[in-house]
UniProtKB/TrEMBL annotation, chain A:
One of its GO terms (molecular function) is acyl-CoA dehydrogenase activity. Gene3D superfamilies: Acyl-CoA dehydrogenase/oxidase, N-terminal domain (1.10.540.10), Butyryl-CoA Dehydrogenase, subunit A, domain 2 (2.40.110.10), Butyryl-CoA Dehydrogenase, subunit A, domain 3 (1.20.140.10). InterPro entries: Acyl-CoA_Oxase/DH_mid-dom, Acyl-CoA_Oxase/DH_mid-dom_sf, AcylCo_DH-like_C, AcylCo_DH/oxidase_C, AcylCoA_DH/ox_N, AcylCoA_DH/ox_N_sf, AcylCoA_DH/oxidase_NM_dom_sf. Residues 6-120 form the Acyl-CoA dehydrogenase/oxidase N-terminal domain. Residues 131-210 form the Acyl-CoA oxidase/dehydrogenase middle domain. Keywords: FAD, Flavoprotein, Oxidoreductase. Belongs to the acyl-CoA dehydrogenase family. Residues 231-369 form the Acyl-CoA dehydrogenase/oxidase C-terminal domain. Its cofactor is FAD. It holds the Pfam family Acyl-CoA_dh_M. This is Acyl-CoA dehydrogenase domain-containing protein.
Automatic annotation (TrEMBL), chain B:
Belongs to the acyl-CoA dehydrogenase family. It comes from Glycocaulis alkaliphilus. It comes from the Bacteria. This is Acyl-CoA dehydrogenase domain-containing protein. One of its GO terms (molecular function) is oxidoreductase activity, acting on the CH-CH group of donors. Residues 235-387 form the Acyl-CoA dehydrogenase/oxidase C-terminal domain. The lineage of its organism: Bacteria, Pseudomonadati, Pseudomonadota, Alphaproteobacteria, Maricaulales.
Length: 374, 392
């Protein structure tokens, strides 16, 4: 396992960085927000991501994907974190694509994966039913009925839910075991309510009331659905941790630039030891987060059996560090950091939301304790 | 030889040669092999292990063979470390000669100095200590006042060093001495090797809050050292000291990830666990879990910095980040260990040799963020050299 990028990864990162800073900088995000965009992201941008092959980054080549691996997906999200670029990448290209890949039947893969790759569909991944992430607390049921299924339950704050064409729902079958079902959002019995969140994203709450589904809605291509679900969530966690890392890095960079410029008492405030020590501490923490996020992403590609503890630990560390970096950023910007005009507040809000998604630092710590056997 | 073949042969050799007594963790500092002229081995296993490893040059696996090393590549050295870790084999020899002086001599020493000193370090025959700090010159190391005046082909040295770890047990000292009184602060310092048996050199232990005294004061009263014992050029001492400090920092840092201390094990020892074997106090459990996360992040960072260095990116001021994070982490680990042990951890002396070890190690760990440059100095270095923040 290597902690440095190979040439291909370097190229992917560099091209992502220049593409996003040109096409989807923070000003573009502000525009979406101010226009009250009903999707919460740009459809044109999503198409561009498809053209560049990003949407197929975790899809096998047989289905038109690039099959670059989790590490590469993480690199892209890290860059999206830097520019606060909203898109269905995490929900669709990472979570849904991984779910189909590890648990879908050949027919399901053939039907859905090319649509993900082409960027023509947005698929949400619906796991949580409570305010705090808890994949063990699933009350949604998918029970057999004739040759099909009937789905009942509610899901909360499904990422990109407002724009989703379909959602993959984590439910329990009649035996109480976890299962995954793919539901068209226009299906009878599905109601959704878009929720605008603090970070100007648009997830949605879903209610499923006696939703009648064909048997092929069930993703039963995995011999161990519980294991598959854990893997999907770990991939999602490592990738959102990478996004949080990008948020932290960029917030830190703009803060350092600012304190070098901003003068008080006739000198740049960066010359004060009180700020220097905090900045140096923050950089140390970001370096730790960077290493553990890389480790988690690589482990998912190379030795997935060892990934759960690294994914949980990376999610926890990246959550804590991105919240620290952005809150310290506001403090160091001073009063202007509290204004909407400056970007640092947008980073602070995204750090909070991304940190919550799929488990925050407290959740990660609990998971690490559990996986370590204490 | 391919790395896989090397791994297999190394594993076989270690299996055949590492004595059973060297496959269990050391029982505290007294059980670690430091070597030196007057060294008495704690056990036959300790002696045999040192002899066998030194024979192959594996006490210093990546040093060149002609100086007593194993001549291994970086990758091979890493494989050896991994294989030793896998079978819980102890380090055969720990010393400042290996961690600090050796790398400095390899880079700056004359051929005579290398041939004279490196093989003895590799075989554990000579124990070294470091003479840097002085009363009044701690973090501001370059303000040191111990001076050496040239008299023929010898320096006559006068002054005092402080915090010289294990000076009372060491055979030689590598010391920073001001040899050019008029030169600017950083330029008049020389790096001199001095035999501790030289007339005029004396030491006195300093008792610490841990009740022990790894540190000493060292005095030089008209002590004489030949000019040939200067490493590099006279006046070049500051460069060498900085190079060596980065190795010292790496050494202190490696302590922070050593697996010996484990708050979870401590909780089990103290019976502070529930019926499922979990730490009974949920808040302590959370604290330990957060420590584990930071330890994993730190471990990954060490690997990353190593990978980056192998690619030629250089460690540079990143050593300061590692030193800062590693030592703060180690202090936290000791605090949680004490917390998990409860009143058992407070024991100062008892019937068993290891009684009192937890408290002593905890107290000793407070020095981590002071020695080798305080945490505040490391943060200054990061602020100035990495972030390029302006001075006041």
């Amino acid at each position: 396992m290597s902690f440095v990028l190979n040439d291909e990864e370097q190229m992917l990162r560099d091209s992502a960085r220049s593409f996003l800073s040109e096409t989807a900088p923070v000003t573009a995000f502000r525009k979406l927000r101010d226009e009250n965009n009903p999707d919460g992201f740009s459809r044109d941008l999503w198409s561009s991501m498809a053209e560049m092959g990003w949407t197929g980054i975790l899809v096998e080549e047989d289905h038109g994907g690039a099959d670059f691996g989790v590490f590469a997906a993480g690199l892209l999200l890290q860059e999206m974190g830097r520019t606060l670029t909203p898109s269905p990448f995490l929900s669709t290209a990472v979570l849904a694509a991984t779910a189909l890949r590890v648990a879908g039947s050949d027919a399901q893969k053939a039907k859905w994966l090319p649509k993900i790759v082409s960027g023509e569909t947005v698929i949400g991944f619906a796991v949580d039913e409570r305010a705090r992430h808890n994949p063990d607390s699933i009350n949604t049921t998918a029970k057999k009925q004739g040759n099909g299924l009937v789905l009942n339950g509610t899901k909360r704050f499904v990422a990109n839910g407002a724009a989703a064409d379909a959602v993959i729902v984590v439910a329990r079958n009649e035996d109480g075991a976890p299962c995954l079902v793919l539901v068209d959002c226009n299906q009878k019995g599905v109601t959704r309510k878009a929720r605008r969140t603090v970070d100007s994203h648009l997830p949605a709450d879903f209610t499923f009331e006696d939703v009648a589904l064909d048997g092929d809605a069930l993703l039963d291509g995995a011999d161990n659905t519980e294991g598959a679900l854990k893997h999907i969530l770990d991939v999602g966690r490592a990738c959102v941790a990478a996004e949080s890392l990008g948020v932290a890095e960029q917030a830190f960079d703009v803060t350092i630039d600012y304190i070098k410029e901003r003068e008080q008492f006739g000198v740049p405030i960066a010359s004060f030891q009180g700020l220097q020590h905090r900045a140096a501490h923050l950089l140390s923490e970001i370096e730790m987060a960077r290493s553990i996020v890389m480790k988690a992403l690589r482990t998912l590609d190379e030795t997935p059996s060892q990934a759960p503890i690294w994914a949980a630990a990376a999610k926890a560390k990246a959550t804590a560090v991105s919240r620290l970096a952005t809150s310290e950023g506001i403090q160091m910007f001073g009063g202007v950091g509290m204004t909407d005009e400056y970007d640092i507040g947008l980073y602070y809000k995204r750090a909070q939301a991304a940190g919550e998604f799929l488990g925050d630092d407290a959740w990660g710590a609990g998971q690490v304790a559990k996986l370590s056997g204490y | 030889m391919s790395l896989e073949t090397f791994r297999k042969e190394t594993r076989d050799w270690l299996e055949a040669n590492c004595p059973p007594g060297m496959r269990v963790p050391a029982k505290g500092e007294a059980d670690i092999c430091w070597g030196g002229r007057n060294w008495t081995f704690a056990s036959d296993d300790q002696r045999i292990w040192l002899e066998r490893m030194a024979e192959r040059g594996w006490t210093v696996p990546t040093w060149p063979k002609e100086y007593g090393g194993g001549g291994l590549t970086k990758e091979e050295g890493f494989v050896l470390k991994e294989e030793m870790k896998a079978m819980k084999a102890r380090s055969p020899l720990d010393s400042f000669g290996i961690w600090m002086l050796g790398p400095a001599l390899l880079k700056y020493g004359s051929e005579e100095q290398k041939r004279e000193h490196l093989p003895k370090i590799a075989r554990g025959e000579i124990r070294w200590c470091q003479g840097y700090s002085e009363p009044g010159a701690g973090s501001d190391l370059a303000s040191l006042r111990t001076k050496g005046v040239l008299d023929g082909d010898e320096y006559v040295i006068n002054g005092q060093k402080v915090w010289t770890s294990y000076a009372d047990k060491s055979d030689w000292i590598f010391a920073l001495v001001r040899t050019e009184a008029d030169a600017p602060k950083h330029l008049g310092i020389s790096f001199i090797l001095i035999d501790m048996d030289t007339p005029g050199v004396s030491t006195k232990p300093i008792k610490l809050i841990s009740g022990k005294s790894p540190f000493c004061e060292t005095f030089f009263d008209d002590a004489r050292a030949p000019v040939s014992n200067v490493v590099g050029k006279p006046g070049q001492g500051w460069d060498i000291a900085k190079y060596l400090l980065s190795h010292e920092r790496a050494g202190i840092v490696s302590d922070a990830v050593s697996g010996g201390l484990n708050p979870v094990g401590a909780a089990h020892l103290a019976g502070e666990v529930d019926e499922k074997g979990r730490i009974a106090d949920p808040i302590l459990r959370g604290d330990v879990a957060r420590l584990t996360i930071d330890a994993l992040a730190f471990e990954a960072t060490l690997r990353r910095v190593k990978d980056e260095a192998d690619k030629g990116e250089g460690v540079g001021a990143k050593a300061s980040i590692l030193k800062y994070v590693g030592t703060e982490l180690n202090k936290r680990r000791h605090e949680l260990n004490m917390s998990a042990l409860g009143s058992d951890g407070l024991l100062w002396e008892g019937e068993k040799e290891e009684d009192g070890e937890a408290a002593r190690s905890w107290l000793r760990s407070r020095a981590n963020s002071i020695e080798g440059g305080t945490s505040e100095i490391q943060l200054n270095i990061v602020a100035k050299r990495v972030l390029e923040l302006p001075g006041t």
